[in-house]
UniProtKB/TrEMBL annotation:
Residues in coiled coil: none
E.C. number: 5.1.3.1
Pathway noted in the entry: Carbohydrate degradation
Origin organism lineage: Bacteria, Bacillati, Bacillota, Bacilli, Bacillales
Cofactor(s) needed: a divalent metal cation; Zn(2+); Co(2+); Mn(2+)
Cofactor note: Binds 1 divalent metal cation per subunit.
GO CC field: cytoplasm
Pfam families with a match to the protein in the record: Ribul_P_3_epim
Active site: D35 (proton acceptor), D176 (proton donor)
Protein role: Catalyzes the reversible epimerization of D-ribulose 5-phosphate to D-xylulose 5-phosphate.
Record carries keyword Zinc: yes
Binding residues annotated for substrate, in chain numbering: S8, H66, G142, F143, A144, G145
Protein name: Ribulose-phosphate 3-epimerase
Length: 221
């Protein structure tokens, strides 16, 4: 299977959201990546449950919900989660990670854990049976338009080997942050499966979203 595309909706032009969604549907993207920030886990605010509900009324594309919030277990009930969505929580954001993952599992969504650039892979040792996806942050979370943290490329490769050697090769690898066409190609070679496409690749001022998305796909097949 080729790499999958998850466009970061926080990078969209909100004045033309409907047009954006239709272009992404036409380009057959796999998910819509929805960044939720709380001004505490990360120094920024972005989208929330009301916004998500509005987008749900426009499209059936599954959501890839990236919770950059502290104590995500307290807030899961306020989100409309559907089977087939991905829900990601950060390893760093809760002291009850396993319980939180179980709660996501109960919703029928795919269960995903994100690691900040400074968080080691071995912190996943005891929860590998509870997850479907590991999201490697390739920038520090909080803002679009940042530069890749170079060490994260090697981290993707290391994670791929780690999953294979521990008998968990079914777990998929997602990458988020400065996933440009060139970086995506390297990340694909390193073992990434799902690619968050933002301002570095498909959301560029005065350029055609559909065409950039089709072009991006060529780098991750
Ligand atoms: C944060 C976001 C950003 C961003 C990705 O989790 O998901 O990483 O929107 O887009 P870039 O880095 O290409 O601007
Ligand atoms: Zn994200």
């Amino acid at each position: 299977m080729g790499g999958r595309i998850s466009p970061s909706i926080m990078c969209a032009d909100f004045r033309n959201l409907e047009t954006t969604i239709r272009a992404l549907e036409r380009a057959r993207v796999d998910y819509l990546h929805v960044d939720i920030m709380d001004g505490s886990f990360v120094p920024n605010f972005t989208l929330g449950p009301d916004f998500m509900n509005s987008v749900r009324e426009m499209t059936d594309i599954p959501f890839d919900i990236h919770l950059m919030i502290n104590r995500p277990e307290d807030f899961l009930p306020i989100f409309t989660i559907r089977p087939g969505d991905i829900v990601t929580v950060h390893q760093e954001a809760t002291i009850h990670l396993q319980r939180t993952l179980q709660r996501i599992r109960d919703t029928g969504a795919k269960v995903s854990v994100a690691l900040n650039p400074a968080t080691p892979i071995y912190t996943l040792d005891d929860i590998l049976d509870d997850i479907d996806i590991v999201l490697i942050m390739t920038v520090n979370p909080g803002f679009a338009g940042q530069k890749l943290v170079p060490a994260t490329l090697g981290k993707i490769q290391k994670l791929k080997q780690y999953l294979q050697q521990s008998g968990h090769s079914h777990i998929e690898i997602e990458v988020d942050g400065n996933v440009s066409c060139e970086n995506a190609q390297k990340m694909r070679l390193a073992g990434a499966d799902i690619f968050v496409a933002g301002t570095s690749s498909i959301f560029k001022k005065d350029q055609d979203l559909y065409e950039l998305t089709e072009k991006f796909r060529e780098y991750i097949t």
